[in-house]
Amino acid sequence: MGRALLYLIFSLFFLSSAANHRKVEYLKLPLLHKDTFPPNPSQSLSSDLRRLNTLYSSLNHRSIRSAKLPLTSGASSGSGQYFVDLKLGTPPQRLLLVADTGSDLVWVTCSACRNCSSRRRGSAFLARHSSTYFPFHCYDKKCRLVPNPRGVACNLTRQHSPCRYVYSYSDESETRGFFSTETTTLNASSGSAVKFKKFAFGCSFEATGPSITGPSFNGAQGVMGLGRGSISLASQLGRRFGNKFSYCFMDYTLSPTPTSYLLIGRSAQVNDSKMSYTPMINNPFTSTFYYIGIESVYIEHVKLQINPSVWAIDELGNGGTVMDSGTTLTFLAEPAYRRIVREFKRLVRLPEVNDPTLGFDLCVNVSGVSRPSFPKMSFKLSGDSVLSPPPGNYFIDTAEDVKCLALQPLAAPSGFSVIGNLMQQGFVFEFDRDRSRIGFTRHGCGLP
Fold it and tell me: How many C-beta neighbours within 10 Å does residue 448 have?
């Protein structure tokens, strides 16, 4: 399918003082997927594993240290990523960022150059060329929202003592810089430009390691954190324009590729009466991830015998299930995974393909079958709701005439299950922070 141009649509609220009524305005940002989606299944699995290792190590590190520190982004693995243009500074400078629901901090590659003629346009944010750039002082209370480097004292008497941060990745990659404020400019659906002042972000002057400098980063200049924490883009805009957002990932197999979108704020396209809701589950060791509660799994309407403790968050913050847009496949706690695979093997009436290079435990030969049929799986969630994705969301093409069950086992006891973006296709998911719930529906996914 080549490069697919998607759109990231931000929905914002404005109160009209003249008419004294609410006026809805949309901000539209082009969202680029640079590779064929999904990538080669083995590459996708490898990238997903790197991403999960990063997120798991961040959670473990967090449980040992302060629970107030934001988690490290796992967006840099390059699997199933969505890239968005962000205009930052005055005058605006355009940068390509990875959109990541699994992290909070928005950070960009920065340069302090004065004469920047040798710099390729868009390769970094030129801080000295913006009249609205300003780093937080190290004693500003907002400096506590980011992890600070050890051994660097804050000089309270110096006027120019910037707030320094350091983010470390599981492969020892690091980004370091100043936690700062800027003006960001977003294009409204009306065609006008809307400016947001005092937007908090990380200005990175040093980045090392393959995760954030190598080819897996796909040439991006940073990460747009969309997590649940207070410094994410979703939170910063949400505080001003409504504390909820929703998104829809369209079926990647359709041609031409339909538009996918993200809405921040209240959208008339989301019909409450069509929504099923499940509570957001809180993990005391992280404020970033969007946890849901799985109660049971059904295949062909038959409940599988899986101990409910498999899905629980334990006293150390391990376990549970996270909704994540940056992970392609779905990873499930191993006892549940083994039971699910065993049931699918019992029910699927197609010849199995035993090829360990594919990386999946259940693959079948569909040659000569124009419309192969697969058993239906559903997840019973907390709040008496049921998520029933179509079989195309979890049986995917991995080779010619071969389809595989796109699930993976989660063996790490300190990890958590992840519902990846393939499993989320074709649904509108609404994240309502005020009511601490996640809604989902098949209705309205694909509306412009």
Answer: 8
CA-based nearest residue to 275, from 162, 397, 135, 430: 430
Q: Is the peptide bond before 279 cis (omega within 30 degrees of 0)?
A: no
- Per-residue pLDDT 10s for the chain (448 aa) are 343 333 333 333 333 333 333 344 555 554 555 554 455 665 666 666 666 665 665 565 443 222 111 222 233 333 456 677 789 999 999 998 877 888 888 999 999 877 776 777 778 999 999 999 999 999 999 999 999 998 888 877 666 789 999 977 655 677 899 999 999 987 665 667 788 999 999 999 988 876 666 655 667 888 888 899 899 988 998 777 778 888 888 776 666 666 667 777 766 566 778 899 999 999 998 888 999 999 999 999 999 999 999 999 999 899 999 998 877 889 999 999 999 999 999 999 999 998 888 889 999 999 999 899 999 999 999 999 999 999 999 999 988 999 999 999 987 666 789 998 889 988 989 889 889 999 999 987 764 4
Inter-residue contact 281 to 313 (CB < 8 Å)? yes
Q: Where are the chain's structural domains?
A: 27-60+70-264, 272-440
Catalytic residue among 324, 361, 432, 434: 324
pTM of the model: 0.81
Determine how many CB atoms are found less than 10 A away from the CB of residue 25.
16
Amino acid identity of residue 201, one-letter, is F
Query: Any catalytic annotation for residue 397?
Result: no
Query: Is residue 44 classed exposed, middle or buried when 0-12, 13-18 and 19+ CB atoms within 10 A define those classes?
Result: buried
Specify whether 140 is catalytic.
Answer: no
Structure tokens that stand for 338 in this block: 């083994």
β-pairing verdict for 107-111 and 281-283? unpaired
Q: Which two tokens stand for residue 119?
A: 């710099």
Indicate the CATH number for domain 27-60+70-264.
2.40.70.10
DSSP 407-440: EEEE--TT--EEE-TTTTTT-EEEEETTTTEEEE
Name the catalytic one among 100, 314, 397, 434.
100
CATH of domain 272-440: 2.40.70.10
**Six-digit token string for 365:** 């030969």
Fold matches, 27-60+70-264 and 272-440: yes
Q: CB-based contacts of 263: which residues, under 8 Å, 6+ apart? A: 9, 10, 11, 26, 245, 246, 247, 269, 270
